[in-house]
């Protein structure tokens, strides 16, 4: 299949992935521990950007403009973000040891789903080489 040569000012590149969080400080601590994040930058009193390999950054956002009337925010109810690992068994064991809420066991020796402290469903997958 040939893709037409569309002219666009938009880059074919993901600049970052937003994850809605209720408490930015707690989220920074949790994601730092789970992903081994050593640095990042705060912006606008509600955003934390941590550099990641493969994208410009993982963005934890308290999302004040997107909150419901009661002040809560919607979370991902399907796993829409995939983190990679070379060792799915070690990753699963690490999550268990850190009391992360696991939603599935390891599936097809390839992936598992877990929840972050805000209830977002996320996934760990074995990197395909």
Keywords:
alpha/beta; 25% strand; four-stranded mixed β-sheet; 2,3-Dihydroxybiphenyl 1,2-Dioxygenase, domain 1; 8 strands; globular; 129 residues
Tally of domains: 2
Q: What CATH first level of the largest domain would be assigned? A: Alpha Beta
The helix-and-strand class reads: alpha/beta
CATH topology of the largest domain, what is it called? 2,3-Dihydroxybiphenyl 1,2-Dioxygenase, domain 1
Order of strands, main sheet, comes to 1-4-3-2
Query: What are the low-pLDDT stretches, counting only 5+ consecutive residues below 50?
Result: none
Average pLDDT score: 91
Label the overall shape: globular
- Strand composition percent: 15-25%
Based on the coordinates given, report the CATH architecture of the largest domain.
Roll
Kindly, what is the distance between the CA atoms of the first and last residues, rounded to a whole number of angstroms? 25 Å
Computed Rg: 16 Å
CATH homology superfamily of the largest domain: 2,3-Dihydroxybiphenyl 1,2-Dioxygenase, domain 1
Largest sheet: 4 strands, mixed
Find the count of extended strands (DSSP E, 2+ residues). 8
Helix content: 10-25%
Protein name: VOC family protein
Pfam families: Glyoxalase (PF00903)
Domain VOC: 13-127
Structure commentary:
- It comes from Lysinibacillus zambalensis.
- Residues 13-127 form the VOC domain.
- The chain is an alpha/beta fold.
- It has two domains: 14-65, Roll (2,3-Dihydroxybiphenyl 1,2-Dioxygenase, domain 1), CATH 3.10.180.10; 75-129, Roll (2,3-Dihydroxybiphenyl 1,2-Dioxygenase, domain 1).
- 17% of the residues lie in helices and 25% in strands.
- It contains two helices and eight strands; from the N terminus they run βαββββαβββ.
- The strands form two sheets. It has a four-stranded mixed sheet with strand order 1-4-3-2, covered by helices on one side.
